[in-house]
């Protein structure tokens, strides 16, 4: 809403809004999406088909899952080394892209 009104958000405000979204259920949603992309990347085609089938039945989309995973990857790694954060981001992004 603030962006639509032309207001500029600083980093601390963006962090605060992100934390509010996490508290409101975004964390659980990110974990569920992470589980879906991990299962889909297991190499078992029946699992990937079933995940996509359930996603379609529930009205979800691959595009939304990928967006959620990209946002999750961007925020990962508080308190971890830079190498760990970058490796984990790359791994998550690869999972999302192959979903």
From TrEMBL:
Domain Beta-catenin-like protein 1 N-terminal: 10-70
Gene3D superfamilies for this protein: Leucine-rich Repeat Variant (1.25.10.10)
Keywords of the record: Coiled coil, Nucleus, Phosphoprotein, Repeat
GO annotation, cellular component aspect: spliceosomal complex
Pfam family name, one: CTNNBL
Places the protein is found: Nucleus
Keyword Nucleus attached: yes
PANTHER family registered for this protein in UniProt: BETA-CATENIN-LIKE PROTEIN 1 (PTHR14978:SF0), BETA-CATENIN-LIKE PROTEIN 1 NUCLEAR ASSOCIATED PROTEIN (PTHR14978)
Protein name: Beta-catenin-like protein 1
The species this protein was found in: Crenichthys baileyi (White River springfish)
GN (gene name): CTNNBL1_2
